[in-house]
Design goal:
Layout lengths: L26 H20 L3 E2 L5 E3 L1 H4 L4 H6 L2 E4 L5 E4 L4 H10 L8 E5 L2 E3 L11 E10 L5 H16 L7 E7 H11 L4 H13 L5 H12 L3 H11 L4 H6 L3 H4 L2 H15 L5 E3 L13 E7 L7 E7 L14 E7 H12 L11 E5 L5 H13 L4 E3 L6 H10 L4 E5 L1 H6 L1 E6 L5 E5 L10
Helix pairs in contact: 1-5, 5-12, 7-8, 8-9
This protein binds histidyl-adenosine monophosphate (HAM).
Histidyl-adenosine monophosphate binds next to strand 7, strand 11, strand 12 and helix 13.
């Protein structure tokens, strides 16, 4: 059946705009994207992580289990396929990687260090740093129980921030522990599951709502227990872990969750990473985290969004009926990565160069020889374009220059006759004359 819905009326013109909240990548954007991806790949591989990938389509059930209400109910792109299956465009990679590991649990050697650069789809209100499709580096380590996993994962994230051009004083790594949140809700304040859940959601929103709304929501959750509400607010307003602990009962100061936060901070400090702070309100919206959670923030008010987010999720494999498997990882988006590169490194040196050399035949009858020369260069890995236009030779050279091509070789009747070629470097105007047989030696690095 013909699809009439999207067929424009005779005189209607289709818009050239992409769909709301997604981007077209023109070659100059692709050059920046490639720069970001190569920072990501080089850093992950430096730590021995292997790349994997998967389809953008997943069964919707995969996200219902543990991705968290906001993501599943408000942000996913869902559809029913022709076979009545419910399908979701992946909004994150963690459930996919957990599914892949669970499927081959016995064959995969542990620890497994994996990374991927998927495109993800979230129905969000497009704004600076947040779009409806983004690319996200995912780095995850499976099979390590100790906090060395958290320390390694945060170390990788730190290295990437430095590679974007930031100094350690430009950004902050914020840490919390889901176990500590649970301990406080359950053991310290004896909140039931529903109240604890509401409290985490309010804490998650704290930065986005005003203080008054926050305080009244907390008081509402504690209802008649106004003293406890007060204690809770004092905890939340602490400036550091010491002050935070001072508001807790004695036995909580030595709780496993507090020890873990301290150990991760100390481990990072040993590696020279000191821009780490304890953040008692850091919740992370996703339900599967079980231990340390972290986010990295640029301190520049222009890029206020989180750059990295991750944590430990030891239970996620159990949704596939598998036994638990320790897992720690993070996601880092390309939208904010580009903003950071722009702010801290500049994007001007990300030149989009299509070729290393342009061959410019002076007349049409010089083209066959130009093609031979181009083939010779390409066979040796030199990126070579030929200008087939009828433009004057001066314009051909100017065009090559505008395309950031570093060198040109002009080919006229004389060059065809004697095989003597002139390589011109466009930035300096410097010319080198060479025999065709020696040509390649001028293109060796
Ligand atoms: P997330 O916090 O939802 O975590 O996203 C991680 C990062 O992806 C954010 O810090 C941000 O840089 C980027 N990001 C998220 N949503 C958008 C968006 N709509 N537009 C642009 N960038 C965005 C996760 O997705 C977890 N699955 C990460 C993880 C991996 N945890 C363990 N392993």
């Amino acid at each position: 059946m013909a699809d009439t819905q999207n067929t424009p009326e005779k005189h209607d013109k289709l818009s050239t705009e992409p769909y709301k909240g997604v981007r077209d990548f023109y070659p100059e954007d692709m050059a920046i994207q490639k720069r970001i991806f190569s920072i990501w790949r080089d850093t992950a591989e430096k730590y021995g992580y292997e790349e994997y990938s998967a389809s953008v389509l997943e069964p919707s059930a995969l996200y219902r289990a543990k991705s968290g209400e906001e993501l599943v109910n408000e942000q996913t792109y869902n559809f029913t396929d022709r076979g009545e299956r419910e399908v979701t465009l992946r909004p994150e990679m963690t459930p996919t990687v957990a599914r892949m590991i669970a499927a081959r649990r016995r064959d995969i050697m542990m620890p497994a260090r994996w990374y991927s650069i998927p495109n993800l789809f979230r129905y969000e209100q497009p704004q600076r740093g947040r779009l409806r499709e983004h690319w996200q580096l995912n780095v995850d380590i499976f099979g390590v129980t100790s906090l060395n996993a958290e320390i390694e994962i945060i170390n990788i994230a730190y290295d990437i921030m430095i590679a974007y051009g930031l100094k350690n004083t430009d950004f902050e790594i914020r840490l919390n522990n889901r176990k500590l949140v649970n301990h406080i809700n359950k053991d310290v304040f004896a909140l039931d599951q529903d109240a604890a859940h509401k409290l985490s959601k309010i804490l998650d929103k704290k930065a986005k709502i005003n203080e008054e709304t926050f305080v009244s929501s907390v008081k509402e959750i504690f209802a008649e227990r106004s003293e406890d509400a007060k204690k809770f607010l004092a905890l939340i307003n602490s400036n550091n872990i010491e002050e935070f602990i001072s508001h807790l009962p004695q036995c909580s100061a030595n709780h496993e969750s507090v020890r873990e936060v301290r150990e991760v901070m100390a481990g990072l400090e040993r590696l020279g990473i000191t821009n780490v702070s304890f953040a008692q309100t850091l919740m992370r919206g996703l339900d599967y985290y079980t231990g340390i959670v972290f986010e990295i923030f640029d301190l520049n008010p222009e890029n206020r969004r989180s750059v990295f987010g991750g944590g430990r999720y030891d239970d996620l494999l159990s949704i596939f009926g598998n036994e638990k498997l320790p897992a720690v990882g993070f996601g880092a988006g390309d939208v904010i990565a580009r903003d950071l590169l722009e702010t801290y490194s500049g994007l001007n040196d990300t030149k989009n160069t299509s070729a290393d050399v342009a061959i410019c035949p002076i007349n049409e009858n010089n083209t066959p020889y130009a093609l031979d020369i181009a083939e010779k260069l390409r066979d040796s890995g030199v990126r070579t374009v030929i200008d087939f236009s009828n433009k004057k030779i001066g314009d051909k050279i100017a065009n090559a220059n505008r395309r950031n091509i570093a060198r040109v070789i002009c080919i006229g009747d004389e060059e065809v006759a004697n095989g003597k070629l002139t390589i011109k470097v466009l930035s300096s105007g410097e010319e080198t004359i060479t025999n065709e047989s020696d040509l390649l030696s001028h293109f060796k690095e």
